[in-house]
Amino acid sequence: MALDISDISYSVIRFVFPFARRHKIFHLDFIHVREEEPENMLTQEGYPENMQSGEKTGRYRILEDMISNVLDSITVEETSFNLIIKTGDILEEILLRSSEICYEFIILGKSRKSDLDTLFEGSLQNSLIMESPCPLLIFAPRKEKWFIT
Question: Model-level pTM?
Answer without folding.
Answer: 0.73
